[in-house]
Amino acid sequence: MPKITYITPGGKTIVVENAHGTLMSAAVANHVEGIEGECGGVCSCATCHIHIDPAWMDKVGPASKVEQGMLELEDHASQCSRLGCQVKLTPELDGLIVKVVGR
User: Using an 8 Å Cβ cutoff, are 95 and 17 in contact?
Assistant: First the structure.
């Protein structure tokens, strides 16, 4: 499984090796600051809002309409915003770098 690098709102870098599940579940399991996952990964709280490096957006894929609706409510949403609970980890995402938005 992939190696994912999270950059927390405070600027700390956390590298997660052999990540599995979703970007949110891997972050929660590794105590990444700023990822809360209050809804448990059902796309209803946006406490796992992240920014994907633009170079990775094609591999990560677009947000669903439901996810887009949640992101529209976020103050710091951008073209590279995703909810971590909606990004499934695959071998193709090895090396991905994400910035945690936090609250």
Answer: no
